[in-house]
User: Fold these one by one.
Assistant:
Number 1:
Amino acid sequence: MTNTRPLAMVTGGSSGIGLELARQFAEHGYDVAITGSSSKVDNAARSLRELGVEAYPYQADAATYEGVEGFWTFVRDLGRPVEAAALNVGIGIGGAFVDNALEDEFRLIAINVTGTVHLAKRVVQHMVPNGSGRILITSSVSATQPTPYETTYGPSKAFGYMFAESLREELRGTGVTVTALLPGATDSQFHENAGLAGSVIGLSKKNDKRDVAREGFDALMADKDHVVGGDDQTKQVVIDNRTTSEPVKAARHAINMKPPRPQ
């Protein structure tokens, strides 16, 4: 294997948008280090190697300090500069906040917020001395509105969006860029995993995860501050959200996400 190719790292890279982001990097000549919570990450790495690059899988729990730090140590020990980092891993929880387990809410925050900050710190402190690098942070269209029945998810993604925008400005002139990807509803397992498969959005037509990943990759390479991942309707939602009141958006989201009553 050669080390002349640039190296990218992708969290949540064993399935969904994360795996498609890893494929985008691989198709553009990057070796890729990926992490995931299950042994599927090894299968994902094998599929990426079929694209003619090297792929380095690492299984870890992104909700723990040890899991995040372990992945960074694994990447650092490859002994190569990280040219691009996609901080993509994230989870959702559906249902009423009053009913959801507190430990589940804490796990979401640990992955979506704490883990993002943790790995971003390591990546930034690696890239800035090198004078180059690209960082992609996966947020969500949900970052632009209240999200009842996903009551901690939306705020966690709003944090990711504003964190990316803030970090981007701080790093201006360093050679390191930051881009936020805001996907709409996508054909991954997100809604099923969040317990929202039976909701209005869960049953609706989804954006193609390959298209969403390509938009994110293209925006990263073009040094855009953010991109909305999805079709024209998805992009229009974000435009409309800029001028729609929070109570109206909250009521709309509640209708779309309230779990159906048990039969």
Note: The chain is about 45% helix and 15% strand.
Number 2:
Amino acid sequence: MTISKFNSEGYYDPTAYEALTAVEKSEAAINAYRPLVYICSPFSGDVDTNIKAARRYSRFAVDRGCIPVTPHLLFPQFLNDRIPTERKLGLFFGNVLMSKCSEVWVFGSNISNGMAAEIKRAEWKKYPIRYFTKNLEEV
């Protein structure tokens, strides 16, 4: 979009020009590159609370300019975590997605078995890992 410094009547209008330029820059920033980050947080146990927390963590990543990859919000929609073969399949799918991410973000101090496996894999693959409290403070 080309923004003119002149209004429709041909008069110089710097205020409108600056405002429209700011809007254009804001729109461009929204469409800028956003890295994928893998969200690692508990799922099993208090599933409803953990899902709400994972949604909050995902939003936190979006607000920091990232695209969250949160497998435990997706795969339980069609895989049953209580069936060992399906749980194993979900963890495998998560590993594949993790390999596409720039960083792994671990949330909370309660590390579940699934999280421990994800962290171990991230460390083994030397993926950058960042740790956050459940209150979204980096540690």
Note: Residues 38 and 98 are 6 Å apart (CA to CA).
Number 3:
Amino acid sequence: MTGFLGGAYLWVKAAHIIFVIFWMAGLFLFPRYLVHHQAALAQPEEAAAWAQREAKLRAVILTPSVIAVWAIGIVLAVHWGLFEGADGLGWLHAKLLLVVLLTGFHGWAVGYSKKLARGAGHLQDRTLRMLNELPALAVVLIVILAVVKPF
């Protein structure tokens, strides 16, 4: 099935990039919301407002975009021959590993958001702020892998 997208390939690739941008925008913002939410736990009305903001961000941006990124990404991987054992796709294997880890981070952040909504935040403020940088680091590595294809 390698190359099955034909003339649609560039359109599918563009859609993938668009949804990656949406997902990254959400992942850059969401951990910052967690920092503010945790800081507001002592003020129930403010904490509830942050929980509502987080839920909207998840529903409108994060969940739809991560689903689209994975669905379109799998189509692209099939197009490139990933499941046929095509040569020269080491970069894609590394990229997929990073995307799996980033998806895990996304899941952790959603879970922590729900804990905060129950008033059960337990991480240090500094730890949350440092975790806020993980999506940026991941996206730098992913872009390098996707563009440079070093192996």
Note: The chain has five helices and no strands.
Number 4:
Amino acid sequence: MNSQPASTELVERVRNTLALTGAKPTPAHVAAALRADGTVCGDAMVLAVVTALRREALGAGPLDILLAEPGVTDILVNGPDEVYLDRGHGLERALVRTGDDSAIRRLATRLAAAAGRRLDDSTPYVDVRLPDGTRFHAILAPVAAPGTCLSLRVPSRHVFTLDDLVAAGALPPAGTPILRDLLESRLAFLISGGTGTGKTTLLNSLLSLADPSERLVLVEDASELRPDHPHVVRLEARPPNVEGAGEISLRDLVRQALRMRPDRLVVGEVRGAEVVDLLTALNTGHEGGCGTIHANSASDVPARLEALGALAGQPRDAIHSQVASALDAVIHLTRGDDGTRRISEIRTFTRHPNGQVSTTPAVDFHPDNTITLHPPASRFTHHRPDQVGAA
């Protein structure tokens, strides 16, 4: 009995035959299509073709096998048969055949349609969340080269605890009580870092430590946060439809969240004009708010906030004034050359006599698992230095 996987060419021929007759990809219909094609094969090959066709119709096609692998965080397709994945230690080539660009395009179009979005030559890119929570982005050729490109960000299958982060080398053991103290002090904070540094993972971990009596209202562009907490309300933005109507922005949702009695207002990623509404909320009695932000370093966060505020037409002095009153700390994450994600430091916000805001080092986390405490850490550190292992 033939046990080889079905070739792309064979699957394509059977697909075309079934399309002409309107038959479903059942074993009987596939076997009949193979016979009509003059192909001689056994039961195993028939089942392999059926599986391939059903994956194309229902799942993520040839990428399903990668999505099912434990530990995979990202899957990237750069045109025909060029697939990379990230298991948390950097990108590696995956030996998966995707077929030609037409096959990738069909897969991208179907996944976009499943999320209620249009993907074609008039709208050659899409960014959506799939039903299983996977973040899916596609951009079609010839806009993308060497072919249609897909990017899938796979949600974590479980919420990491701080102990898990310690075990993974992302946090020194002595850092656990510091992060707990920061959260319990109900300070407003941002988690900064580059793409793929683990900002959402850390925010999930911290929100899971919030008092069970607190009501968490999460505002996100695409729902990724899944804190292990009994009282969570999620608000998700919606892009405009093909007619350009129906958009619900993050800014709209932040305003709505304020009317929902949040004990903690959380913006999954601060990336635009919604920063003004978030800062306003944190300045009007909504303690303990938090979110993530892209920044190269913790010291760059004030400038990043200033740039985002400019998108909402806010002058520089107004944004710095808001930041000084609204935010207490920023936790910065980095990713090493070996792909290891690590919490590198915590800084507090300091306002200078000229009204401008900068960040001041409060806690440094070193790769050798030691930490250094600076005076601003006393704002949220309730443990003695010897208890947290200060260097």
Note: The chain has three domains: 1-58, 60-155, 162-388.
